[in-house]
Specification:
Blueprint: E1 3-7, H1 8-17, E2 19-23, E3 26-29, E4 31-36, H2 46-52, E5 59-61, H3 65-78, E6 84-89, H4 93-96, H5 99-107, E7 112-118, E8 152-156, H6 162-173, E9 181-187, H7 188-191, E10 194-198, E11 205-207, H8 216-227, E12 232-236, H9 238-242, H10 246-256, E13 260-262, E14 277-280, H11 287-295, E15 298-302, H12 308-311, E16 323-328, H13 331-334, E17 340-343, H14 346-357, H15 364-385, H16 395-405, E18 411-414, H17 419-426, E19 435-437, H18 446-457, E20 463-468, H19 469-474, H20 478-485, E21 490-495, H21 500-508, H22 531-537, E22 541-545, H23 548-556, E23 565-570, H24 595-608
Parallel strand pairs: 2-11, 4-5, 4-6, 6-7, 7-9, 8-9, 12-13, 12-15, 13-14, 15-16, 16-17, 18-19, 18-20, 20-21, 21-23, 22-23
Antiparallel strand pairs: 1-10, 2-3
């Protein structure tokens, strides 16, 4: 057996570069690159190895470890989990900065390879700079923080251990059911140690994402339920995108005339103006989708966890005889909500279910009801998106302005605060995959870094990041990264001078405005932040507009220069779209001196009575 003598880091990098993925018959690199911020724990070992393969496995430099991991996550999501990126940091704060991003990937079931440096396996210089010492367990390091937010975790303490660790990592990253973040903690001395690796370990390997077909018994039970449905509906989740099942979904809807509602991850799976697209579902949903959900007798949930924002904290589906079918590659998710499980790939499952249903079509009255509700919602949406009224614009009006002026194929990116709710209801995607929202973990600070990842994955499409001033202040450093890489992004900052979304929730649960808007936080002088100047100082072309018409004009202005542009507009922190939506379980204090809190608790107890934890 021929061997190659390489350091562990050199062998790891060479292995990553050899991994390919089959996408529509074309073998592409599985890893789109490696994000790296070097420190003493990875610069000498992994840094040297990455330099050696910099042409075949590009290395990107970030400005914040969490942010660069967000960019990698967005790349994977925008690639429909067909491709991924890796991230490496030093030990200590560089590593733990990525723990939040690992949680984002874990919750959203997205592939992410994390390669943090670790302490010395030989322990000769212990304790080393930035080492966390456990007083009872000498094997613990800061990287143990990644255990609960990784789908696979390993610490490499011998150079030959990567011979088994890397194939296991790839199995997780490419598995449709177990997909999620992988952490390989790389002891810094072991990175530099040499070993005689089998040469065939580095042979090019072309992988494919498997498509599990449904079990016949599960398929028959699901088809029997749907065939008897008088008021069926489909919930399209992120799995529809990841399975690349959008055509199968459209074909299913056309053949069986079943209305569709979309989760945050599933939005833009079906054209927004499809006659049976009810729009977004749940707390951030449309009136059309939520009214249909209240009546539905059979719900086919495709590729979704059915989290609380989708189900109105388990209070939305009010039909006492309703049944849920969970079509999901993961048995863990398919069994939730006392559902009838249909464990399968979304595309294979939809196609098989359609064939089993034969010529079934939902009752005409149900179709007519859906179309009427959609028409009513579209009128309501137009009213809140319209550029009318005096004073500062609402988020909804800003969304309308950006949506009208944007290219039809643009991808809008967002994450946290009030914008995901408004975008979910009101953004009209002109093409499949035109809506990219991180709302599984709702991580503030994801947005700008996420926009970079989306653009790297979809360079041919315009990418528009929308975020509030709160998220901007949490993580804006990757504007400099986008400028450095010449990545063309449009970033729209809606400045409502604080955390407007949580202020509204605070008021909605009976509390007083406190510590959310800047004016209600402890201060001696209110900050007057010039976001335009700040973005410009990071390398962006920036402008502040003072009206919705100016916002539309700025979005529509041809943008050919390399690097990001930032558009800032002041918005009203108190206005949100009241139409649509449903109840969300946010616990209200049982005891309070405030009468508004006591009233809110009474309303909370009344609303909670509609929750159905089991059938």
């Amino acid at each position: 057996m021929s061997t190659l003598r390489l350091t562990m880091a050199q062998a790891l990098v060479r292995y990553l570069a050899a991994q390919k993925i089959d996408i529509d018959g074309e073998a592409l690199p599985f890893f789109g690159g490696v994000w790296a911020i070097f420190g003493h724990g990875n610069v000498a070992g992994l840094g040297e190895a990455l330099y050696g393969l910099r042409d075949s496995l590009p290395t990107y430099r970030g400005h914040n470890e969490q942010a660069m991991a967000h960019a990698a996550i967005a790349y994977a999501k925008a690639s429909n989990r067909q491709r991924a990126m890796a991230c490496t940091t030093s030990i200590g704060p560089g590593a733990t900065n990525m723990v939040t991003a690992a949680a984002v990937a874990h919750v959203n079931r997205l592939p992410l390879l994390l390669l943090p440096g670790d302490v010395f396996a030989n322990r000769r210089p212990d304790p080393v700079l930035q080492q966390i010492e456990d007083f009872q367990d000498a094997t613990v390091s800061a990287n143990d923080c990644f255990r609960p937010v990784s789908r696979f975790w390993d610490r490499i303490t011998r150079p030959e251990q990567i011979l088994t660790a890397l194939p296991r990592a790839m199995a997780v990253l490419t598995d449709p059911a177990d997909c999620g973040p992988v952490t390989l903690a790389l002891c810094q001395d072991v990175q530099a140690e040499a070993y005689d690796y089998p040469e065939n370990f580095f042979a090019e390997k072309v992988r494919h994402i498997r498509r599990p077909r449904p079990d016949q018994q599960e398929l028959t039970r699901a088809a029997t339920l749907l065939a008897a449905a008088k008021k069926p509906m489909i919930i399209a989740g992120g799995g529809v995108h990841y399975s690349r099942a959008v055509d199968s979904l459209e074909s299913f809807v056309h053949k069986h005339q079943v209305p569709v509602a979309e989760t945050q991850a599933g939005k833009s799976a079906l054209a927004w103006d499809h006659p049976l697209n009810l729009g977004s579902l749940g707390v951030t949903g449309t009136s059309a989708a939520n009214e249909a959900a209240e009546e539905a007798d059979v719900v086919l949930a495709v590729g979704t966890r059915l989290q609380d924002f989708t189900t109105g904290s388990r209070a939305l589906f009010k039909n006492p005889s309703r049944r849920i079918i969970q079509l999901n590659t993961a048995a863990f998710d398919a069994g939730k909500h006392q559902a009838e499980p249909l464990v399968a790939d979304a595309r294979e499952g939809l196609d098989s279910l359609s064939a089993q249903l034969s010529q079934y079509s939902s009752p005409t009255a149900w179709q007519d009801s859906a179309r009427a509700r959609i028409g009513g919602w579209n009128q309501a949406a137009e009213a809140v998106r319209a550029p009318e009224g005096s004073g500062l614009p609402s988020d909804a009006q800003a969304i309308g302005a950006v949506n009208r002026a944007a290219d039809a194929g643009a991808i809008v990116v967002g994450a946290a605060g009030g914008l995901p709710g408004e975008l979910h209801k009101l953004w009209r995607s002109g093409g499949t995959g035109g809506y990219h929202m991180e709302y599984g973990y709702s991580c503030m600070g994801y947005e700008i870094a996420g926009g970079i990842g989306v653009k790297l994955a979809q360079p041919e499409r315009d990418v528009i990041v929308m975020l509030g001033d709160g998220s901007y202040l949490m993580m804006n450093s990757e504007i400099a990264t986008a400028a450095m890489l010449g990545i063309r992004l449009t970033i729209v900052v809606l400045d409502n001078r604080g955390f407007g979304c949580i202020n509204r929730l605070q008021r909605g649960t009976g509390g007083e405005s406190f510590n959310n808007l800047l004016q209600h936080a402890r201060h001696e002088t209110l900050p007057d932040i010039d976001f335009r100047a700040h973005a410009e100082s990071l390398g962006a072309k920036a402008v502040k507009v003072d009206s919705l018409s100016a916002l539309e004009a700025a979005i529509a202005e041809p943008f050919h220069a390399a690097g990001p542009r930032v558009i800032v507009i002041d918005t009203d922190p108190l206005i949100s779209t009241e139409t649509g939506g449903t109840w969300w379980d946010v616990a209200v204090p049982e005891v309070s001196e405030s009468s508004t809190v006591r009233d809110a608790h009474d309303a909370y107890v009344s609303a909670r009575a509609a929750q159905r934890l089991a059938d």
